[in-house]
Design a protein that fits this description.
By secondary structure, the protein is of the alpha/beta class. The relative contact order is 0.20. Helix 1 packs across helix 11 and helix 3 crosses helix 4. The longest helix has 16 residues. The two termini are about 20 Å apart. The chain has eleven helices and ten strands. Helix content is about 40%, strand content about 20%.
């Protein structure tokens, strides 16, 4: 039986969709990956309509944008997960697996000695920060970090992601915002700062599903906790910098698990 796997329109999601698909294929299922349009709600809508059977969502996106639950004063990964699981369950959607990694918003630096955002806050007034323009205003972006940590930068430069990484590599800026699974974090030798006061929501990767053929959910349990944030960065690097195809990366990853 064919299982249709949704994917958001970026590389990490395509890799994950093929990992899921190749795993199902080993158990006799056929699969198809369907990449959505770039709307946060696109895959959930497709799932609810039965156009896809499952996809990988992130708990922070589900909590804030899809289920529209009230923000937490201090974000807690387990509380967010449980709220998302219950919220989806009420809509007839099940969480099949927690993959083991988070693709959070984070602050990245090149300088040594900084480990946490609290460390950064002590010297931030002397530093230049680069981020996409919307991050300056979005509720889970710079305003939240200012409110919790008192972050104040000497200068803020609105730059697109590619420009941010180039700027920090040339020493033109000191701090940028980054996704924790972005392959460029390792490629540019950046350090991700710990959100030690839990100011920002967690974006844990989970597999959610509507109606599935018998036995499919059990197969996917093999992925529970198997992909760390570092592993996901490495898989993204294989696609972004090494020119490997999503299907090839998926096969190599499953082979590394002995599957």
């Amino acid at each position: 039986m064919r299982i249709v796997i949704g994917a958001k329109p970026f590389n990490e999601q395509k890799i994950l969709a093929h990992i899921i698909g190749k795993l199902l294929q080993r158990e006799g299922f056929e699969y198809e990956v369907r990449v959505s349009e770039p709307r946060l709600e696109a895959n959930l809508e497709a799932l609810e309509k039965g156009e896809i059977n499952l996809y990988v969502e992130y708990t922070g996106t589900a909590y804030n944008a899809l289920l529209k639950l009230p923000p937490m004063e201090e974000w807690d990964e387990e509380r967010v997960f449980e709220a998302v699981r219950e919220g989806f369950k009420g809509n007839g959607i099940d969480v099949i697996a927690r993959l083991g990694f988070r693709n959070d918003f984070a602050l990245a630096v090149k300088r040594e000695g900084l480990k946490t955002v609290s460390d950064l806050a002590r010297i931030s007034k002397s530093l230049t920060f680069a981020c996409p323009a919307p991050y300056v205003e979005r509720a889970d972006g710079l305003p939240r970090l200012k409110a919790v940590y008192g972050l104040e930068f000497r200068e803020i430069k609105p730059l697109m992601p590619r420009e941010m990484y180039e700027a920090i590599s040339k020493g033109e800026v000191d701090v940028i915002t980054a996704f924790t699974t972005d392959a460029r974090v390792d490629a540019f030798k950046l350090a991700l700062l710990e959100d030690d006061k839990k100011a920002l929501p967690p974006y844990e990767a989970i597999v959610i599903a509507g109606e599935l053929p018998e036995g499919a959910a059990k197969v996917l349990k093999a992925l529970e906790g198997k992909i760390s944030t570092e592993t996901m960065r490495r898989l993204n690097h294989m696609l972004d910098f090494e020119g490997k195809r999503e299907e090839e990366i998926a096969e190599e990853f499953l082979a590394s698990l002995g599957i």
